[in-house]
């Protein structure tokens, strides 16, 4: 997990990354968002798409509209509905009349402790894209690539004209993605990584961190990293029963204390996946090998 680069960051400034792609950084840096959420404006004609409009922050919405300029927004497209990605969709629609297109809304079972605190319940898409469906404009085609795991409704968007893939939080440019049960699913996340590894995208544009110019190499490393975590868990469990929190200090050396909860959730996601595969079992708050 890399630390943020030195300031100043290009917050609120449109950066053109290639002829069809601009990037606008939102003013929401945090230990979970790196320097902030990166919104993308796709297209160079009179109709463009906005990917991951970000938080409902008037400054960021104005920065997006400045990047769009005189063009019309044909679609506001969301990779998933965490609160740093989709809340600006509604006010941006109110300002422009653009439809909201992309991932499905996500409503979690609200019995017991709330697990959806990070989700945007205001998200109301006009059109949900299934895997392989596309949104088009003059000179651009954005095709949905279903990548559940980080969230069950996560999509990536492939820009067919340039070979770019907008990866949301599934693959980020600074850290591995957090997988938080019950909605986050490590088995689905790994299958989605395998799916991306089989593709031949030229470049990834994530929602956090720098662009990724060696996509398949990075994805291969991410798959290997998760397998190493899984093996660490099994080695520790071979010593005896453990609760999820007990894995963190042994597996995450030098971790920012503010990320301890996220690390524990990722460990839990691995544990749930191993249990589902019949390799371990749980008893109350502890886990054991079979």
From TrEMBL:
Protein name listed in UniProt: MBL fold metallo-hydrolase
SMART domains reported for this sequence: Lactamase_B (SM00849)
Natural source organism: Tsuneonella litorea
InterPro entries named among the record's database cross-references: LACTB2_WH (IPR041516), Metallo-B-lactamas (IPR001279), RibonucZ/Hydroxyglut_hydro (IPR036866), Sec-metab_biosynth-thioest (IPR050662), WH-like_DNA-bd_sf (IPR036388)
Residues in Metallo-beta-lactamase domain copies: 36-208
């Amino acid at each position: 997990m890399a630390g943020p680069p030195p300031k100043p960051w290009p917050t609120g400034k449109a950066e053109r990354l290639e002829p069809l792609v601009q990037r606008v950084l939102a003013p929401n840096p945090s230990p979970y968002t790196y320097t902030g959420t990166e919104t993308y404006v796709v297209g160079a004609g009179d109709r463009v798409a906005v990917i991951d409009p970000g938080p409902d922050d008037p400054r960021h919405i104005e920065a997006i509209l400045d990047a769009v300029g005189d063009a019309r927004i044909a679609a506001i497209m969301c990779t998933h509905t965490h609160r740093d990605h989709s809340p600006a969709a509604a006010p941006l629609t109110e300002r422009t009349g653009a439809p909201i297109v992309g991932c499905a809304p996500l409503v979690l079972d609200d019995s017991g402790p709330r697990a959806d605190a990070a989700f945007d319940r205001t998200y109301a898409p006009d059109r949900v894209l299934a895997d392989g469906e596309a949104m088009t404009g003059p000179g651009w085609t954005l095709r949905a690539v279903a990548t559940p795991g980080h969230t069950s409704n996560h999509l990536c968007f492939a820009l067919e004209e340039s070979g770019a893939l907008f990866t949301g939080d599934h693959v980020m440019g600074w850290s591995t993605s957090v997988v938080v049960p019950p909605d986050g699913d490590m088995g689905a996340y790994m299958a989605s990584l395998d799916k991306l590894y089989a593709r031949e995208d030229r470049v990834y544009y994530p929602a956090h961190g720098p662009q990724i110019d060696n996509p398949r190499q990075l994805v291969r490393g991410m798959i290997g990293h998760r397998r190493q975590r899984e093996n660490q868990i099994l080695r520790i469990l071979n010593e005896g029963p453990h609760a999820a929190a007990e894995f963190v200090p042994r597996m995450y050396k030098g971790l920012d204390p503010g990320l301890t909860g996220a690390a524990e959730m990722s460990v839990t996601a691995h544990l749930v996946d191993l249990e589902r595969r019949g390799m371990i079992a749980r008893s109350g708050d502890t886990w054991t090998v079979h």
